[in-house]
Amino acid sequence: MKVEKKCINPSCGLTYSINNDIYRCSCGFLLDIEYSKIPNKSLIDTFFQRLNHGGNIFNESGVWRFRELINFIDIDTDDINECSKYFVSLDGSEGRLSHPYKMSKVAKYVDMPVDNLLLQPEGYNPSGSFKDNGMAAAVTHAKLLSVKKLICASTGNTSASAAMYASNEGLDCEVYIPKGEIAPGKLGQAFQFGAQVIQVEGNFDDALLKSLEIAKRDGGYTVNSLNPFRLEGQKTIVFRILEHLNWNPPDWIVYPGGALGNISSCGKALMDLFAWGWIKKIPRVLVVNATGANTFYELVNGFFESTKLQWNNGLPDTLLIERYYEKQIKDKHVPKTSATAIQIGKPANIIKALRTIDFTNGIVEQVADEDMMDGMSSVGLNGFDCEMASGAVPAGIMKLRKKDIIHKDDIVVGVLTGRQKDPSMIIKYHSEKSNKFAVPPIDL
Ligand SMILES: *Cc1c(COP(=O)(O)O)cnc(C)c1O
Ligand SMILES: [Zn+2]
């Protein structure tokens, strides 16, 4: 089978070998991973049977269980020795427990029947966020290139995940973080897993620029979501959703939007499955921004220069994006939300994300910090914890229910992107009795 990286710009279409860490085409657009072979639909049974993993960690892993669909190494996937020579896994734990669950309290909060709302807690991953799905694949590619050091910028969870896999694989790891802007639980993980933490004055966008600059100068393999192998791994989030629904797509899939890697990956998964004839219906993707970090929301909905930014068959108005960023600088506007995982002003995957919105007839909504806190708290009442950025999912669903864009009888699946890593926020929320779900403590 031929596997290549291909420019997402249809009027360019340049291809690149996968034996390097180029992630951007010479024309400036990002790259996709392209497989020459169409996978056989009978694999659906194989994936299901692997749930009885019999001690095989590549069947146990919720990522590598779908290995034929992300087989960029092009190996014999039935041969366990071959698998263990190449595939990076934390003992089969990535994606293993994250599949859709019903949550009655959240359903009540968003005003939907309990059977119609499903939420997938990606916080059940080994480092506590969906990033592990993508990181297992990216580090697999890094090992193929025999690199010694992983590099990333992070709002916290990417660094936790990269550091975890790096230490497990004996690689060095350098993480660039916006100083003082990441949750203590996430920063603690980077230290604990032995990464070199580098604190950058500024926000995530500044940290990403710095990390890319240093990777270029000194070497090191970038594992941010610009890396198309990250997005291949994250496609399994969608595969697990669809498998749970017997491969009948829901009406909606809902994500918080930060760097927009996750929704780009979702779009790629759906485009592939549709092209292969595995699915007939395309779910609508809802992306939820924080009001304090709403670049995608403003551009897509035409709140900047009264022009709606669109995919436009691969010819989006990139100058509009540039002018938006220039205006942000001129106005000294910096992204600001307590949901630090999505506190991003320049989403690196914005063009790929536009393609997802176009392909799925998607919607971009925004929600306030208070609503994310309520959304997060409603999830907690069902015995699942998630972090504030994930709370954007119930909050966004509720907002679209109120506008009756999401209907009561729609089937909606939301991705709860990460586990709670800043308990101080919850304690503060519950000490204030005016908060919707607060149960203030009693002092005896
Ligand atoms: C990274 C992250 C996001 C944002 O995902 P993107 O792919 O950057 O849009 C949202 N929630 C959590 C918990 C995250 O760690
Ligand atoms: Zn190109």
Q: How do you describe this structure in short?
A:
By secondary structure, this protein is α/β, with parallel strands linked by helices. The protein is built from 16 helices and 13 strands.
Structure commentary:
This protein is of the alpha/beta class and 444 residues long. It has a domain at 101-127 and 228-431: Rossmann fold (3-Layer(aba) Sandwich), CATH 3.40.50. Helix content is 39%, strand content 14%. The protein has a six-stranded mixed sheet, with helices on both faces. The chain has a four-stranded parallel sheet with strand order 8-7-6-9, sandwiched between helices. The radius of gyration is 20 Å and the shape is globular. Zinc ion (ZN) binds next to loops. Pyridoxal-5'-phosphate (PLP) is lined by residues 129, 131, 157, 225, 256-262, 341-342, 387, 389-390, 417-418.
